[in-house]
Design the sequence.
């Protein structure tokens, strides 16, 4: 999968893309993530990418021309263009699964008061929010999206079963995990996990996943039933 990130802060991505699954996926050539500096597509000597909104409101807006040019410089027939925005579809595992099937994703990271509305009207295929709160830019949101997509790509995470048992994949939350020591300050690991009985361990994990989901996210149980 190829991903182009349109941003005024390419440096924002240097460290995160060099860590964990995002680094591994790029090293294995399973993903190619390229930052595109929006300012390279400005036409004036000051490399201006923002301007005042019509109507006299406070704040600055990212201009349409550099964004259109930047997207058009990387867009192909198979490209899927996403605007990161608090007003978009709220990201969940179903959307991540859907996006993990794309061959080429272009992500537009907004800044300031947002982007000129004509970008949303005429340039993008999708508008994605990472939750009902407002960030100062789309960069952190795009990283959340890239990491969630990357870990689903075949060959990125070594143990496929590990991904399959994660929260939301089956529709439930994941069961709890414990590691050594078996007794930490008197807090003991549940006996069944050290019993060596694989069937009993599986039953315990299934019960725990159902119990935790009912307690913490009853909406997920309802979604499974619908
Ligand atoms: N005025 C906009 C509004 O209220 O809808 C918010 C603009 S926000 C300060 C600047 C940029 O941050 C947005 O254009 C978007 O790219 C990004 N952003 C902020 N919150 C986000 C969220 N929850 N999900 C995805 N992107 C977000």
Sequence:
């Amino acid at each position: 999968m190829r991903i182009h990130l349109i941003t005024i802060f390419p440096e924002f991505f240097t460290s995160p893309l060099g860590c964990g699954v995002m680094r591994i996926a790029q090293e294995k050539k399973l993903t190619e993530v390229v930052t595109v500096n929006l300012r390279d597509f400005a036409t004036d000597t000051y490399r201006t990418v923002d301007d005042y909104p019509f109507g006299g409101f406070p704040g600055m807006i990212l201009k349409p021309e550099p964004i259109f040019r930047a997207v058009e410089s990387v867009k192909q027939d198979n490209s899927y263009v996403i605007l990161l925005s608090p007003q978009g579809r709220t990201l969940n595992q179903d959307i991540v699964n859907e996006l993990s099937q794309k061959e080429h994703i272009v992500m537009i990271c907004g800044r300031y008061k947002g982007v000129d509305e004509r970008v949303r009207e005429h340039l993008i295929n999708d508008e994605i929010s990472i939750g009902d709160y407002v960030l100062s830019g789309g960069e952190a949101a795009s990283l959340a999206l890239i990491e969630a997509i990357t870990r689903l790509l075949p060959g990125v995470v070594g143990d496929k079963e590990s991904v399959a048992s994660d929260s939301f994949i089956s529709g439930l939350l994941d069961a709890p995990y414990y590691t050594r020591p078996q007794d930490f300050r008197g807090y003991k690991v549940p006996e069944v996990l050290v019993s060596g009985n694989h069937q009993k361990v599986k039953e315990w994990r299934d019960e725990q996943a159902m119990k935790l989901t009912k307690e913490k996210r009853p909406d997920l149980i309802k979604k499974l039933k619908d």
Remarks:
- The mean pLDDT is 97.
- Residues 84-87, 109-111, 113-115, 129-131, 133-138, 141 surround S-adenosylmethionine (CB under 6 Å).
- Residues 3 and 105 are 5 Å apart (CA to CA).
